[in-house]
Write a sequence for this structure.
C-alpha cells in the first residue's frame, strides 16, 4: 500500500478535452429546455449585457483537446499560453471544479487550489476568522490550522490587523493573507493561477521564494499558471505550453520559454502597436494600456533608434475606474525575454498620478544609450500600494542601431555588443601606482570564512 | 517542516460527468467541518452589524401575527382551530411558515450566492445548501420558545408530545431542503428560476393551514390539499403544541410528498452539480 501512495507520478492527464457551448450553459444545444431558456433569458441578457452578442447560440468550442501529460511528485511545473489557450480550464479540471468532457486525470494526493486570491474570504469576518474559514475550505482540519496559525500570521505581515474585518484591508493585505494561508496549509498538490500578479513586488518575491522552498522539500507538486514567462521561469523547472487548447510544448523551462518567445513574436515590430483584446495581460484590469508607440524627440513614430539617441515610449491608456495613486512603467527586454531595464513614473520620488476614467496618454523619455540590437518593450500600470493594475509583455519591438542620429555623432564601433545598455560612468585619469599601496586588498578573516 | 501534511489518500480519478450520479454522502460526511465553517460564517456575520440582533428574528412573525389577528381574526372573523384563540393559532402558524419559507428561499439561492466559491474551489457541493439551513432553523427555535410562552399564557400546558420536536425539525429541514434543492440546481443555469420564489412564498401562505384551520377545506378535497407538504407539517406541529387531533392519513400523504421531494431534489442537484462552475 505504501508503495502505491509513494508512487512517483502525482498527476497523470490522459487525452483531456473540455467542450463549451458558446452562448449558453452547459447542457448542450437543442431540446425544449434550451429553447425555453433562450426565450426566457433573452430580454434579461440584453439588460445585463454580459454575453457577447456575436456568439452563435449553441456553437461548440473546445477549450482543451487531447491534452496529455504526467507530472512527478515534487515537480514544479509552469503552465503558459496566451489568453484562451486553456490554462485556466486545465487548472479547473485538475481542481475538480469542472469535469472534463473527455479523457481522464489521475491525481495521487490531496489537491488544493489557489485559483483566485481570497476565495472563501468573508468581508465581514476578521483576518483571524478568515484564516480558519479559508483553511477549512482548502481542505484542512482545524487542528492543522491551529498548528500553522502563527506561521501564517507572520508570513502575511498583517500583524495588528488580525482582528480587523478583512473588508477594511487593502488589496495588498488581502493577497498577502490569502497566499499565506494557501502556502502554509499544504496539500500534496498545489495549483496556483496568476494570483501573484496582484501583490506588490516585495511580496511577490517572498511568494516565489516560498514556492521554491516548498518545492525543495520534494513532497509537494506545484502547478503554476502565469501569463508572465519571467515569473514562471523563476519558479518552474519545467514548463507546459498550451496553444488553442492543445499541448504544444512540454520540457525544461529555459527551452520552452525560448521556443515560446520565438512563437509569440512581439505584437508589432517598430513604430506602434495597438493592443487587442486577445492579448494576454496581467493585473486587476481597472486600467489597460491599449496602444504603445515609439517616438523620437520630434514626435515622429520610429522603428529604429540611433545609437545614443534618446527615445520616447508613448502609452495610451484606458481607465475604467478612478485610481487615486497610479504609476506607469516601461520595461525594455531582450528578444529572448530578459528584462534589463525599467523606467517608472514613480522613480526618483516622481508624483503618484491620479487617473480618471477615460482614455489618456503618457510619455516616457528614456535617456539610456542602448547598444545595438533588437529590443522589446513591456508596459505596466500599478498603484502606490504595489497592486499591479495592468501588465503586458512584448508589446512592441524595435532595433537599436550602431549609427549616430546626427552627422558626426558617436557611432558604436564594435561588431559585438557587450550587454545591452551603456552604464553611465566617469573615469579618472590613469594614475601611477603609489609605492605604499598594495594592488590587492588584504583578506579579512570574516570574509575568508565565507 | 511540513510535517502536518496528511498521507496521500490514494488516488482520485477525474472523468467526464454525465447523467444521474451517486449522492456521495460519505464524502460529505468526511468534510462535515466545512459545513460547520459555512454555518459559523452565516451566523457570525448575520447580526454583526445589527445591534438588536435577535429582536429582528421575532419582530417579523409578531408583526404579521398582529396584522392577521386584527384583520382576519377580529374583522373578517376567520375561525381558528377548535378551542384555540386566534392570535395563538396565527402566531404558531406564522413562526413555522416563516422558517420554512426562509429555509426554502435560502437553499434555493445558495448556488448563486456561493458562486464565487463554487467556481474557484472543489468541495462537496451539498455542503452549501445544507449549511444555509442553520440560520432559519435557529430562528425557528427562538420563535417556538415564544409560541410556547404564549400558549402557556393562554393556559395550554406543554405535554409529552413535545418530545417529538426533533421529528418536526427533521420535517422542516427535509421539506425546505427538498424543494429548495430543485431551485438551487436550476438556478445555476436558469437564473430566472429564482424570480418565482417570492410568488411561491406568497402562494404557500394561502394554500397552507397557517392563518385558517384545515377544517375550512372541504373534507373531500383535503387529500389533495395535503399534497402541499407544508400542510401536513403544520398539522403535526400544532398537534404537538396544542390539544388538537392529528389526521394521520393526511400526514402520511404530506410525508410521502416531502420524502419524494427530498430524494429527487438531492439527485437532481447532484446531476446539475458538475455544470455549476461553467454556468455561473
Amino acid at each position: 500500500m505504501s508503495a502505491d501512495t509513494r508512487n512517483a507520478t502525482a498527476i497523470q492527464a490522459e487525452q483531456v478535452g473540455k467542450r463549451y457551448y458558446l452562448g449558453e450553459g452547459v447542457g448542450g444545444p437543442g431540446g425544449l429546455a434550451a429553447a425555453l431558456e433562450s426565450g426566457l433569458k433573452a430580454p434579461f441578457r440584453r439588460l445585463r449585457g454580459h454575453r457577447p452578442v456575436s456568439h452563435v447560440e449553441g456553437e461548440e468550442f473546445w477549450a482543451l483537446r487531447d491534452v496529455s501529460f504526467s507530472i512527478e511528485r515534487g515537480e514544479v511545473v509552469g503552465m503558459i499560453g496566451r489568453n484562451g489557450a486553456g490554462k485556466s480550464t486545465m487548472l479547473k479540471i485538475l481542481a475538480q471544479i469542472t469535469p472534463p468532457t473527455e479523457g481522464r486525470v489521475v491525481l495521487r494526493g490531496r489537491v488544493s487550489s489557489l485559483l483566485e486570491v481570497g476565495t472563501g474570504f468573508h468581508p465581514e469576518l476578521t483576518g483571524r476568522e478568515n484564516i480558519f474559514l479559508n483553511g477549512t475550505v482548502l481542505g484542512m482540519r482545524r487542528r492543522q490550522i491551529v498548528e500553522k496559525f502563527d506561521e501564517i500570521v507572520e508570513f502575511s505581515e498583517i500583524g495588528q490587523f488580525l482582528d480587523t474585518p478583512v473588508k477594511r484591508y487593502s488589496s495588498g493585505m488581502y493577497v498577502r493573507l490569502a497566499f499565506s494561508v494557501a502556502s502554509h496549509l499544504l496539500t500534496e498538490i498545489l495549483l496556483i493561477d496568476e494570483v501573484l500578479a496582484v501583490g506588490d513586488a516585495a511580496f511577490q518575491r517572498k511568494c516565489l521564494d516560498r514556492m521554491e522552498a516548498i518545492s525543495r522539500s520534494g513532497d509537494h507538486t506545484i502547478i503554476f499558471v502565469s501569463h508572465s514567462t519571467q515569473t514562471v521561469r523563476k519558479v518552474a523547472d519545467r514548463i507546459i505550453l498550451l496553444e488553442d487548447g492543445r499541448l504544444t510544448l512540454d520540457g525544461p523551462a529555459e527551452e520552452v520559454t525560448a521556443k515560446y518567445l520565438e512563437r509569440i513574436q512581439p505584437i508589432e515590430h517598430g513604430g506602434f502597436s495597438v493592443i487587442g483584446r486577445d492579448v494576454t495581460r496581467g493585473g486587476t484590469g481597472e486600467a489597460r494600456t491599449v496602444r504603445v508607440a515609439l517616438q523620437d524627440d520630434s514626435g515622429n513614430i520610429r522603428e529604429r533608434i540611433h545609437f545614443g539617441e534618446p527615445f520616447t515610449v508613448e502609452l495610451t491608456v484606458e481607465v475604467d475606474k478612478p485610481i487615486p495613486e497610479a504609476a506607469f512603467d516601461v520595461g525594455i527586454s531582450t528578444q529572448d525575454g530578459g528584462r534589463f531595464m525599467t523606467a517608472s513614473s514613480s522613480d526618483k520620488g516622481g508624483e503618484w498620478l491620479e487617473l480618471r476614467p477615460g482614455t489618456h496618454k503618457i510619455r516616457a523619455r528614456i535617456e539610456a544609450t542602448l547598444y545595438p540590437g533588437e529590443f522589446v518593450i513591456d508596459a505596466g500600470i500599478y498603484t502606490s500600494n504595489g497592486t499591479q493594475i495592468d501588465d503586458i509583455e512584448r508589446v512592441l519591438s524595435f532595433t537599436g542601431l550602431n549609427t549616430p542620429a546626427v552627422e558626426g555623432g558617436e557611432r558604436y564601433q564594435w561588431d559585438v555588443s557587450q550587454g545591452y545598455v551603456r552604464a553611465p560612468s566617469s573615469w579618472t585619469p590613469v594614475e601611477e601606482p603609489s609605492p605604499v599601496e598594495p594592488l590587492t586588498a588584504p583578506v579579512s578573516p570574516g570574509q575568508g570564512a565565507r | 517542516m511540513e510535517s502536518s501534511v496528511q498521507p496521500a489518500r490514494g488516488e482520485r480519478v477525474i472523468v467526464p460527468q454525465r447523467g444521474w450520479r451517486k449522492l456521495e454522502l460519505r464524502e460529505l460526511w468526511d468534510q462535515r467541518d466545512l459545513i460547520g465553517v459555512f454555518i459559523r460564517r452565516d451566523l457570525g456575520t448575520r447580526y454583526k452589524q445589527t445591534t438588536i440582533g435577535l429582536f429582528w428574528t421575532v419582530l417579523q412573525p409578531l408583526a404579521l401575527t398582529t396584522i392577521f389577528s386584527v384583520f382576519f381574526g377580529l374583522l373578517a372573523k376567520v375561525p381558528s382551530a377548535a378551542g384555540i384563540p386566534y392570535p395563538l393559532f396565527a402566531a404558531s402558524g406564522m413562526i413555522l411558515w416563516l422558517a420554512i419559507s426562509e429555509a426554502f428561499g435560502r437553499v434555493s439561492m445558495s448556488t448563486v450566492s456561493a458562486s464565487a466559491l463554487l467556481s474557484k474551489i472543489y468541495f462537496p457541493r451539498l455542503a452549501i445548501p445544507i449549511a444555509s439551513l442553520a440560520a432559519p432553523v435557529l430562528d425557528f427555535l427562538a420563535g417556538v420558545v415564544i409560541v410556547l410562552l404564549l400558549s402557556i399564557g393562554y393556559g395550554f400546558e406543554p405535554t409529552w408530545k413535545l418530545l417529538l420536536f426533533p421529528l418536526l425539525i427533521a420535517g422542516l429541514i427535509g421539506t425546505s431542503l427538498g424543494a429548495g434543492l430543485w431551485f438551487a440546481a436550476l438556478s445555476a443555469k436558469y437564473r430566472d428560476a429564482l424570480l418565482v420564489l417570492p410568488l411561491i412564498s406568497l402562494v404557500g401562505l394561502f394554500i397552507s393551514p397557517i392563518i385558517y384551520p384545515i377544517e375550512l377545506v372541504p373534507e373531500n378535497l383535503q387529500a389533495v390539499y395535503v399534497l402541499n407538504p407544508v400542510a401536513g407539517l403544520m398539522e403535526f406541529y400544532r398537534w404537538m403544541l396544542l390539544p388538537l387531533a392529528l389526521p394521520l392519513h393526511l400526514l402520511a400523504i404530506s410525508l410521502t410528498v416531502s420524502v419524494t421531494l427530498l430524494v429527487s431534489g438531492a439527485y437532481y442537484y447532484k446531476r446539475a452539480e458538475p455544470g455549476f462552475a461553467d454556468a455561473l
